[in-house]
Amino acid sequence: MSRVARLAALLEEPLLVIGLPGIEAGQAGVRYLTGLASSNSAVLVEPDGQATLYTDFRYLHRARALGVADVVETPRGLVGALGEILRGRRIGVEAEHVPYAAVRTLEEAGVDVVPRTGLVESLRAVKDEDELAAIRRAAALSDEVFAALSRERFSGRSELELVWWVERSFREAGAGIAFGTIVAAGPTGASPHAEPGERTIEPGVLVTVDAGCVVDGYCSDCTRTFAVGEVSERLRELYALCLDAQLAGLAAVAPGAHGRDVDAASRAPIEVVGLGSAYGHGLGHGVGLQVHEAPVLRPESSDVLEPGNVVTVEPGLYLPEEGIGLRIEDLVLVTEDGCERLTRFPKELLTVA
Amino acid sequence: MSRVARLAALLEEPLLVIGLPGIEAGQAGVRYLTGLASSNSAVLVEPDGQATLYTDFRYLHRARALGVADVVETPRGLVGALGEILRGRRIGVEAEHVPYAAVRTLEEAGVDVVPRTGLVESLRAVKDEDELAAIRRAAALSDEVFAALSRERFSGRSELELVWWVERSFREAGAGIAFGTIVAAGPTGASPHAEPGERTIEPGVLVTVDAGCVVDGYCSDCTRTFAVGEVSERLRELYALCLDAQLAGLAAVAPGAHGRDVDAASRAPIEVVGLGSAYGHGLGHGVGLQVHEAPVLRPESSDVLEPGNVVTVEPGLYLPEEGIGLRIEDLVLVTEDGCERLTRFPKELLTVA
Description:
Largest interface: A-B, 49 and 49 residues
CATH architecture of the largest domain in chain A: Alpha-Beta Complex
CATH superfamily of the largest domain in chain A: Creatinase/methionine aminopeptidase superfamily
Oligomer: homodimer
Distance between the termini of chain A: 51 Å
Strand order of the largest sheet of chain A: 4-3-2-1-5-6
């Protein structure tokens, strides 16, 4: 069944999926349903499965070539035009992605707007064969790049040099970059969303590398922490603890598992040694057209895993007072009875030069 | 006066600027006001100039290091936490950037939400000295890369090869990529938002290259159309027409000019020869932390230019039936009496090999 038909089956009223400039999730929704990558378009899906794609001059040619929906040209001011077109109708919109002002514009034009959440996301969270094939290719390329990276010299080079090395490797293999690559050495790594800098990497530290590529529109996401030369016993112990947490998280991933419980499973080994506050972020998130999407594995998650979900499993430890940070992340597919690791690069602490 | 103080002077009630995951403009607003680049943070600016920065564990360390605002740690569910914190208060939010569901969450928590538009944008639209210096550096690097590109062989290479050549040049110079580079040869260029592909570039066609880099957070944006070897008289005429339109647009850029009038000025030479429908997009847009921001130069624009605005001037002609597309774009600074081109690379039709 087509994606549009599967969405239609969930609808009480027509759903308008709007991809406005600078709003990633809406754009990803339009792309998922129609194949159109655009920063100014919308698709209206009717409960009977009809779909209409609205976009401006710039994307019209490509939209028509897709052949998956009726295409209607709108002016650049997409929301205003949709208000005119949909006046008097009862229309669902994605409340979590559509700006407040856009809903007001539709309402003021006479559209009876029904806020809806999670409809397209719930479809996107379960990957179909084509999507999974693209994610597998992206994950395999990540593995290759991490393997090649582990043979590079780290000490004496800057974090930014290695960022560029990783991103160049992805690009030369024909892939895109899923998010700004993180290479965080020593104290830089103590911030989970570290900003790589000109810091020269010295022997004796841990370096966290978090990188992902895009293949045919789909993302990979992988983190490994490397030891530069000999590192202290303290660093080895923390690494082993993080790996315990990561394996505990992986073991808890299964269909029917609650996102919050999988998160809790990974937290247990860290909390038992009193370091819970050093693991301040969630365990993981869905990955697909966006590098962060449903479902989420976090203490406050209400998601329940199902076969076909692709999620990250990435506990970390951050001790700014000691200048230490590390994280280990796999990308996994939820299967009928557990999970399959899509990231195959080894997870023992690898020593780099 | 600090950016926060300038914003405070515009406020009737406290303004909450929220930078949520996947919502560019909100993130850019937080970054503009505080310096924090984060996908999950908010800043509350009070009319008296006090500022409080809310973010989660991942960004806390960096937020505190900025020293520009009180920093309050929130859980990952930022909007829910803000609802608790701001309950009972009258708070402005940016209606064009905040999702409908986030406004509802705040309201349900008891916040008296006032939708506001254009406040941070109006400040961001007028660049201060530091911002302008960064944009000048980005534009100068673009010039260098276009100059080097014009010495490269085009024919026999694919669009994607040249995309990578351009992006690698930016990255090797230490800059980021502002948006996916467009290299569109012959018929590919007939779509204004073309997707570069494996098409091998042949002699005799026009190739449109639209590229921008990021230096210290600020974008450049430049388009040039090159002739690959000898091209037909028809292509030369269309190029000359597009250049006329671009020069007419530039001549109309001045403080006090309305965005829609500058757009119209560029449209006149094209409409007079009956090709108006081939120029289906607006003339230009503001550029800064985002590659598309205020003010806009379009038929439906209500913006009025003022000194310190940085905008693109980029008419194009798209004739899919003939497989022809071209565009010429400069980045310009609105000055006290007109504009200054920040893009210096020549605009006559350059022939490449």
